[in-house]
Design a protein that fits this description.
Helix content: 10-25%
Number of helices: 6
Oligomer: single chain
Distance between the termini: 41 Å
Largest sheet: 7 strands, mixed
Shape: elongated
Order of helices and strands: EHEHEHEEHEEEEEEEHEEEEEEEH
Low-confidence stretches: none
Strand content: 35-45%
C-alpha cells in the first residue's frame, strides 16, 4: 500500500547516483554544499552493491544525470522503493525535475515541505524458462520484443489471462507503463497515458497488418508473449534477453511502484506541451 512518507526533517544521509560527466565534480560540489549546510551527508553510489548499502541508511536518493539514470535507479531499488529525485545535469528531461542550477532553490523549498510525491506503477516481467522456473525483472518504462536482425520479421503470439489474444507480425511489440507511454510507445503510435493510471498498454511496431492497433489493459490482466523466431526482449533499453532461450515472457502491471519526488510547480500537461510543441 502507498502509505510511506518521506521524513525530510530528520534526514541524516542522502544517496546520490550520478552519471559521470565532465561537469560531475562541479555538480557534486554544489550538492555537497547544499546538504552539508544542513548537517546531511551525501553517500555516493559507486556500484549496485553500494547502492544497496545506501538504501539501508536512507530512503532518499538523488539521481544526477538524465532520464536513463533515474530509470535505472528505480529499477534497481524496486524492492525497497526509496524516494527518488531526478536532477538533470544538462537540459531538462521528461522525468528529471530540475537542472543542477535550480538545485539550491528547490531544496530550500524541499526542507520546508514544499514538494510532492508521484507513485507510478512499474511492470513485472516474468522470463519463463523452459525448465519451468521463472526470472522476475522490473521495467520502469517498457519491455520491447523486437526483431534481432534488420532482414527478419518479429512474430509474437499474445495470450491475455491464459487465452490466445493476437499474433503480431512486424518489427516488434511494446508493453509500456503509463509513465513510459510518452517514450518508445508514443513514437510507435501508441497512446499517451497519464503517468499515475493503473493500466498498461501493448503497441505493435510497424505492424504488417493495418488492423493491428494499440490496446490498453487494466492492472489485474496478465499478458504472456511467445516469440517464434530470433526475437530479442529489451527492458527499458538497458537489459536484453534472447527469446528463444525462454518458453515465454509474462507481463503485468506490478504492485511495485516508483516514488518520485517532484517540485510543487510541476505540470505534466505543460511538460507535454513544451516537449511535443503542442499548440505551435
Amino acid at each position: 500500500m502507498k502509505t510511506k512518507s518521506l521524513d525530510y526533517q530528520n534526514l541524516k544521509f542522502v544517496g546520490l547516483v550520478a552519471k559521470k560527466s565532465k561537469d560531475f565534480e562541479q555538480n557534486f560540489k554544489i550538492l555537497t554544499e547544499i546538504f552539508n549546510s544542513r548537517g546531511i551527508e551525501i553517500l555516493l553510489a559507486k556500484d549496485d552493491k553500494s547502492l544497496d548499502e545506501i538504501t539501508k541508511k536512507t530512503d532518499f536518493i538523488i539521481c544526477l544525470g538524465g532520464d536513463g539514470t533515474l530509470i535505472s535507479t528505480c529499477r534497481k531499488t524496486a524492492a525497497t522503493q526509496p524516494f527518488v529525485f531526478g536532477i538533470h545535469a544538462g537540459r531538462l528531461g521528461f522525468l528529471t525535475d530540475i537542472t543542477i542550477n535550480e538545485a539550491k532553490d528547490f531544496f530550500d523549498e524541499f526542507f520546508k515541505g514544499n514538494f510532492t510525491v508521484e507513485e507510478p506503477f512499474m511492470l513485472d516481467i516474468f522470463l519463463n524458462k523452459k525448465d519451468g522456473t521463472k526470472i522476475l525483472k522490473i521495467a520502469f518504462n517498457d519491455a520491447v520484443i523486437m526483431r534481432s536482425k534488420p532482414v527478419s520479421i518479429a512474430s509474437v503470439d499474445a495470450f491475455v489471462n491464459g487465452k490466445m489474444f493476437n499474433s503480431y507480425f512486424g518489427d516488434g511489440l511494446i508493453a509500456s507503463t503509463p509513465v513510459g507511454s510518452s517514450a518508445y510507445n508514443m513514437s510507435a503510435g501508441g497512446a499517451i497515458i497519464y503517468p499515475l493510471s493503473d493500466v498498461f498498454t501493448l503497441t505493435p511496431i510497424c505492424s504488417h497488418s493495418l488492423t493491428q492497433r494499440p490496446i490498453v489493459l487494466p492492472k489485474d490482466f496478465c499478458v504472456e508473449l511467445r516469440a517464434k523466431n530470433d526475437e530479442v526482449l529489451v527492458i527499458d533499453g538497458q537489459d536484453s534477453f534472447y527469446m528463444n532461450e525462454y518458453e515465454s515472457v509474462g507481463i503485468k502491471l506490478s504492485d511495485k511502484f516508483a516514488r518520485l519526488v517532484r517540485h510543487t510547480g510541476r505540470d505534466y500537461f505543460q511538460i507535454l506541451k513544451e516537449k511535443l510543441r503542442w499548440g505551435h
